[in-house]
Structure formats: structure tokens, C-alpha cells
Task: structure prediction
Amino acid sequence: MTRGVKIALFVALGFVVLVFATCGGIYAWFQVNAERLADEGKAAMREGAHFGGGKEAPACVEEALRRLEQGELGIIGEAKNKTFLEACLGVATRPAGFCDGIPPRDQIIASATWSLDRCAALGRAQSQPCTRLVGAIQERCLLP
Result:
């Protein structure tokens, strides 16, 4: 075996070990934090349902956007905020036209375009956290 092949195999093996170590670390972290994350998700659902009671859906969106800017950053913070918005929209009144023009989730390009346009209309143009958040609007509006 040539020296170059040995180096390539060593690098490939190192990469595989790194991937497994990373996946194992993530799995262990979720195992340790699963109960706390579930409790935080339930709390976000309660807050959303409480906030949305007696309000119109745009108020839920405004509050979720405010929380997005001032709240916890990262994937966990975004997930809690999206859960808040989903629960809020579940109890809030939807004004006429709120769900107009929303494409089905399986139309990926149309969904991405809609998310970008919706965030731009909300004053959050080119905001990736916003585009992930407004997915909750799409999901709620497309429920039967």
C-alpha cells in the first residue's frame, strides 16, 4: 500500500470517527435533556394557547416575532417559539384573507417563496429564523 493511500484511509477513518462521536454526543445530550425540553415545549404550548385566546392571528404572529428577536437563540429557542405560535394560532381568530395564497407544504419552491415573501411583508426580509417561524402559519392554515 502506498503512502498516499495510507494517508487517505487514515483521514477517512478519522472523519468516520468524528461523525460517530458527534452523533453520539448529540444523542447523549438529548437523552440528558429530554425531560426538560418536553417541559419547555409544553410550557410554550400553554403560553401560546393562553396568549391567543380572544385575539386575532396577526397578534400571535407579532408576538412570536417579538419573542424571536428578544428570546433564546438557536434551534431550541426557535422550536419553542414555533410551538408557541402554533398553539396561539390554534385558538386565535383568523381574519379574512389571513390564509390566502398559502401553498401546500409539498410544493417546496412555492413554500420557500411564500415564506420569504411573508417575512418581507412582516419587515423581516432575508431572515432565516423568520422563514422557519412562518412555517407554523402554513401548517395551521392548511389543517382541515
Remarks:
- The first helix runs from residue 3 to 52.
- The chain has one domain: 36-141.
- The mean pLDDT is 88.
- Residues 36-141 form one domain.
